[in-house]
Design brief:
The chain contains five helices and two strands. The protein is mainly α and about 110 residues long. The protein has one domain (about 1-105): Rossmann fold (3-Layer(aba) Sandwich), CATH 3.40.50. Strands 1-2 form a two-stranded parallel sheet. Helix 2 packs across helix 5 (about 100-105). The protein is elongated and about 55 Å long. The two termini are about 30 Å apart.
Length: about 110
């Protein structure tokens, strides 16, 4: 919270056109903000195991780094949109995105 907000203010003052992307497992605020996270817990709390998991078994990890793929693609699109906004003459942007949001977005 406070340290990140202070850094944001310093960056905005130093470069008003800066694009800052903040990625956290469950967001900077809210009931899950302080939760520890692994790929397995992030997938389980997003509901993905509902689609492919076996209720009689423990949650199983998917191959590769699926959370990273989801989060990375959403973060890239958000950052590129913000950079395009700046290029068109807009102000810098602060992008807050949680891993949970990226994974849940892929459900819809």
């Amino acid at each position: 919270g406070d340290a990140a907000d202070a850094l944001d203010a310093r960056l905005a003052k130093a470069n008003p056109r800066a694009v800052v992307l903040s990625l956290t497992p469950y967001g900077r605020w809210g009931p899950r903000a302080s939760w520890e996270a692994t790929e397995l817990t992030e997938y389980a709390t997003s509901g993905y195991h509902f689609f492919g998991g076996d209720p009689a078994r423990e949650p199983l990890a998917l191959p590769g780094h699926q959370v990273g793929f989801h989060v990375g693609s959403h973060a890239a699109v958000g950052a590129l949109a913000a950079l395009w906004h700046v290029r068109l003459g807009g102000e810098g942007q602060r992008i807050e995105m949680s891993h949970q949001e990226a994974i849940l977005n892929d459900h819809t």
